[in-house]
Backbone:
């Protein structure tokens, strides 16, 4: 039923309904996959897994995750929370300052939780298929971010502070009702892809040409 190798435990699609208590006793785990198990809640005992570097909780039915998730200070590689019923995240997750990849797509977020912008090591952030109407100016904290995926939300613009993300390579804004974008995007030194496909509300500004002239692929 389970597949465990070394410090990895894969319980993908096991129809668990809830996580067995035996999982929380494996305190040396570095990778834990609990995806696609019909989970509706997660025990505070997850805080015992202090060696976790990767956690996959995608494709479940979680409406919230516990504060205890913020105790996983070693979480550095991946945190998958996509395809759940989340509308918010506990503030404690802001303590995950080593995390490099976060996926909270396919949920019910109407705003980006503040704790996300305190995950200062993030390299890739996926928030597609939600209900975001805006991004906070505090997105500027994510100075290591390389990929920002925002497809299929309710965004009409991005904050001017997006221009502070000097490592940003890709911005995906497909299927958003964009009406304007800050010119600071044109000053992102490493941007090589700006995806505006299926955005019919956006008159292309003159600075788009300067992006294309320096080799950035702009899709619209």
Residues:
């Amino acid at each position: 039923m389970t597949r465990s190798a070394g410090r990895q435990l894969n319980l993908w699609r096991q129809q668990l309904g809830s996580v067995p208590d035996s999982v929380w006793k494996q305190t040396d785990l570095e990778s834990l996959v609990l995806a696609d198990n019909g989970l509706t809640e997660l025990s505070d005992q997850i805080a015992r897994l202090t060696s976790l570097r990767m956690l996959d909780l995608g494709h479940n039915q979680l409406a919230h995750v516990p504060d205890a998730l913020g105790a996983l200070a070693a979480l550095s590689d991946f945190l998958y929370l996509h395809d759940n019923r989340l509308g918010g995240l506990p503030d404690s997750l802001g303590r995950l300052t080593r995390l490099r990849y976060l996926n909270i797509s396919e949920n019910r977020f109407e705003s980006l939780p503040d704790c996300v912008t305190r995950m200062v090591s993030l390299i890739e952030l996926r928030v597609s298929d939600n209900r975001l109407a805006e991004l906070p100016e505090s997105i500027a904290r994510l100075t290591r971010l390389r990929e920002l995926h925002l497809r299929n939300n309710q965004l009409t613009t991005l904050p001017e502070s997006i221009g502070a993300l000097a490592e940003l390579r890709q911005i995906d804004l497909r299927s958003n009702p964009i009406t304007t974008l800050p010119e600071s995007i044109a000053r992102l030194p490493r941007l090589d892809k700006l995806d505006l496909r299926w955005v019919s509300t956006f008159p292309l500004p003159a600075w788009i040409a300067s992006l294309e002239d320096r080799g950035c692929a702009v899709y619209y």
